[in-house]
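User: I'm putting together notes for a lab meeting next week and I want to include a structural view of one of the chains we've been expressing. I don't have a solved structure, so I'd like a prediction I can at least talk through. The sequence is below, exactly as it appears in our construct file.
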Amino acid sequence: MSTIHPLAYVDPKAEIGENVEIAPFCYVGPHVRLGDGCQLAPHVTLLGPAEFGPNNRFFSKCVIGAAPQDLKFKDGPTKVVAGSDNTFRELVTVHRGTEVDRQSQGITRIGDHNLFMVGVHIAHDADIGSHIIIANTVQIAGHVRLEDCVVVGGASAMHHFVTVGRNAYVAGMTRVTHDVAPFMKVLGYDQEVRGVNIEGMRRWRFPAESITAVKQAARLLYARRGERSPLRTEEALRHIEADGLMADEHVRYLVDFLRRKLSIGIFGRAREHYRSDVDADRQNFYGTEKKEAVCE
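Assistant: Thanks for the context. Below is the predicted structure for the 296-residue chain, given as structure tokens.
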């Protein structure tokens, strides 16, 4: 049986699963679906359309499912879809998708077993995988894709349409403006690659031979301090293929990721190749029919 505090509001059009706990002063709007075992701390706001799988935890003052902060949004029935066992800490915000994104189909997606720490913002049409940790006040712009098992340090910010490859590590206060290769560690204003996320790969029980192969590939792709400049990326990829490293599935994934970034990436962001909005989508805001502002 679910427990709903009398000082909480649950819209009659919301769907609540079994053993859900809803604390005082929560608001669960119409067309919100909460799976079994979800827990809402006081002052949580869930807005629909939105779907949440079982065993999600929502801490105070998080707001999930609000309309996107995007000029191309036209008040359509876009939504948030989240899987199971996610934790949304205090002040986390997640916005619904927009109508014109063909990749997302109007859905902001979140996988399973993720931790979003205090103040994280996930914008419209984002595609967040599973087993991800995002630290405090990270800002994720629209259309961003985070693949599985990514870790993002606090106060980082991500440009729209960026992809962060699986098992990557983004250090705190990093400015991410182009795709982050899988298995790599990046940091700083220039998103510098500082090596392979060896500890992360070990935690996820990658075979030792795969870690070694990824390290060898990374040496060809990225320079270390005090050493000679690296091979150009295309040449490095050819060396990786010629040296037999492609026998490892994780190296193959790394190479495929980088080739996609090189071949279709716009400003280093492969997802931007599929961008489907146009200037006409913003005319309601910038249109010439708008009245001039009058200062009084």
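A couple of points you could mention at the meeting. The CA atoms of residues 10 and 28 lie 5 Å apart. The two ends are 58 Å apart (CA to CA).

User: Perfect, that's what I needed.
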